[in-house]
Amino acid sequence: MARKKLYYIIHKPYKILSQFSNEGNNAGLGEVFKDLPKDVYPVGRLDLDSEGLLILTNDKTLNNRLLNPKHNHKRTYWVEVDGEPNTESLDKLRKGVEININGKTHSTKPAEVRIVVPEVVERNPPVNYVKHPQRSWMEISLTEGKNRQVRRMTAKVGHPTLRLIRVAIEGLSLEPLVSGEITQISEKAIYKKLNLL
């Protein structure tokens, strides 16, 4: 009998790996999200120091369709950066910047970028506000996902990322989940929100 397809959305906390097992001194998802079926796994990943929306499923088709670069799924992030980006910096991010990926120059695709003032719960531990007294939040939407791309992009325009939260993939939103929370979603609903129907 075929295994029932399961879909969960989680809010991955800061400093938690995007895998169930622990590695070195770093805790995995299994430390936070317990008692999940053994065949459920994350679709894609978020860096250790990033937070937010991660999908867990045992549906290999969904995994393949979401991670295949030819499908250009939009991912949206709230990014707290050092300083206050001016119009020129924002325009550079919108048009695309050159970043270094594994020793090779990569020109990023055009991105949607705007200044936002999101209501977010303080991270634990919080950003060092003494070291970074002037900060801004941006919303950045990309259709590609190179390694640490958002961080490389903001650093390129002189505004290093202090905090990064993935808040949406296509129409699938992180809200209302807070860090460490999980919710189950139906196959039809997740495929519709991800524009995969």
Structure in words:
The protein has 197 residues and is α+β, with helices and mostly antiparallel strands. It folds into two domains: 7-69 and 171-193, Pseudouridine synthase I, catalytic domain, N-terminal subdomain (Alpha-Beta Plaits, 2-Layer Sandwich); 74-169, Alpha-Beta Plaits, CATH 3.30.70.1560. The protein has helices at residues 60-67, 87-95, 149-156, 187-193; strands spanning 7-12, 41-43, 51-57, 75-82, 98-101, 104-107, 112-116, 135-142, 161-169, 172-173, 182-184. The strands form two sheets. Strands 1, 2, 3, 4, 7, 8, 9, 10 and 11 form a nine-stranded mixed beta sheet that branches. Strands 5-6 form a two-stranded antiparallel sheet. Strand 5 (98-101) and strand 6 form a beta hairpin. It is globular.
Name its key features.
197 residues, Alpha-Beta Plaits, 2 domains, nine-stranded mixed β-sheet, two-stranded antiparallel ribbon, 16% helix
Give a quick summary of the entry.
This protein is of the alpha+beta class and 197 residues long. The protein has helices at residues 60-67, 87-95, 149-156, 187-193, and strands at 7-12, 41-43, 51-57, 75-82, 98-101, 104-107, 112-116, 135-142, 161-169, 172-173, 182-184.
Shape descriptor reads: globular
Number of helices: 4
**What's the helical proportion of residues?**
10-25%
Provide the β-strand percentage band.
25-35%
CATH class of the largest domain: Alpha Beta
The domain tally reads: 2
